[in-house]
DNA sequence: GCCAACGTTGGC
DNA sequence: GCCAACGTTGGC
């Protein structure tokens, strides 16, 4: 069992959207490190902190769960998609994704500013300088500490 | 809208 | 293989 944080812009796909969808393929990740976490690190049942980014109140807003093993992101083959990648082929797909299932919405947003104030979250990948990864690992200790703030 | 950070691209 | 240019992310 491992833990992760996945970012989404709420204008594009929010925790409420996930609550309605119940399960969603996490399309559009086009960063190799993030892809590798999904492809090599994630397993069904892993915990996911759902994070809202690029919005008035960035922070952790809910809990989700990895719901599939990694498989090729279909949008990379779709010429009409913003995520189309002409260099990727079905025989040798470049981009992978997992399905993410809704677990619950937090009672409140645990804001980025609040996370930054937590001495025990020193070293947390989300808080590292210049970090832009949209999928990143969370330790069990970090997971417990963050959720205890709720 | 600004800008720092940083990944990717492409010329050489 | 270097590195400048460029594009994107994401907080503010």
TrEMBL record:
Limits of the EVE domain: 3-148
InterPro entries: 5hmC_binding, EVE_domain, PUA-like_sf, THYN1-like_EVE
This protein's name: EVE domain-containing protein
């Amino acid at each position: 069992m491992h833990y992760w944080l996945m970012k989404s812009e709420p204008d594009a796909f929010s925790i409420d959207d996930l609550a309605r969808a119940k399960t969603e393929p996490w399309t559009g990740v086009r960063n190799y490190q993030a892809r590798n976490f999904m492809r090599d690190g994630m397993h069904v049942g892993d915990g996911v902190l759902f994070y809202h980014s690029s919005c008035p109140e960035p922070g952790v807003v809910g809990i989700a769960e990895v719901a599939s093993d990694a498989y090729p992101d279909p949008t990379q083959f779709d010429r009409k998609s913003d995520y189309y990648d002409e260099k990727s082929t079905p025989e040798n797909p470049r981009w992978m994704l997992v399905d993410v299932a809704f677990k619950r919405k937090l009672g409140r947003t645990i804001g980025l500013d609040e996370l930054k104030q937590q001495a025990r979250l020193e070293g947390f990948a989300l808080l590292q300088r210049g970090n832009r990864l949209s999928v990143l690992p969370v330790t069990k200790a970090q997971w417990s500490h963050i959720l205890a703030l709720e």
